[in-house]
Amino acid sequence: MEEWITWVPGLLLGVALSAGSGFRVFIPLLVSNLAARFGLVSVSDDFGWMVSNTATFVLIVASAVEIASYYIAFIDNLLDSIALPASVVAGTLLTTQFLKIDDPTLQWGLGILAGGGVAGTVQAGTSLIRLGSTKFTGGIGNSFFSTFENILAVGISLVSLWIPLVMGILAILLVFWMLKKLFFKHKKTIPQ
């Protein structure tokens, strides 16, 4: 088994990009595709298909359609129902492709747990926020929220390439914060 220190940077890069796929499924995949094509990052040998011309074309089209679709009121809520499993798959692929580990069980296991888990948690949080926006604004506020999500997806993806270790740690902290907000309610102290 390889020394864990050699694959931690790839794991954190994948986790950071996975957080971006919680906001938009295809943007981080496109960013990682282009970064690998231009030699900014390297993917494991089994993921050469992720940097092919076909993959680039498909990811460009999918990103454009996804971005445009989130600006259609109430369609965005429908998309959130399929975006959750799609973001888990994207997060898994994003993380697994950067893990240069000989043991496929460990490689895919880390990809599923770390990348898929981060992407799914972030997507679940954004889905809840969008539902609240739909409820309180009748869908009018959703386009503003979609723009913010697009900016976050692009920003997180680009900054992750620049400082993957910091972004990976921030993504993990974001997930813990979101889980705390979702599952643990603060106990209010009752004055006596």
Distance between the termini: 59 Å
Unreliable spans are: none
Give a short account of the largest sheet: none
Average residue-wise pLDDT: 86
Taken as a percent bin, the fraction of beta residues is under 5%
Described by its quaternary structure, the protein is single chain
What structural class results from the helix and strand content? mainly alpha
- The total count of helices amounts to 7
List the secondary-structure elements in sequence, H or E: HHHHHHH
Give the overall silhouette: globular
CA-based gyration radius: 17 Å
Number of strands: 0
Secondary structure: helix percent: over 70%
Question: Can you tag this structure with a few keywords?
Answer:
single chain; 192 residues; mainly alpha; 0% strand; globular
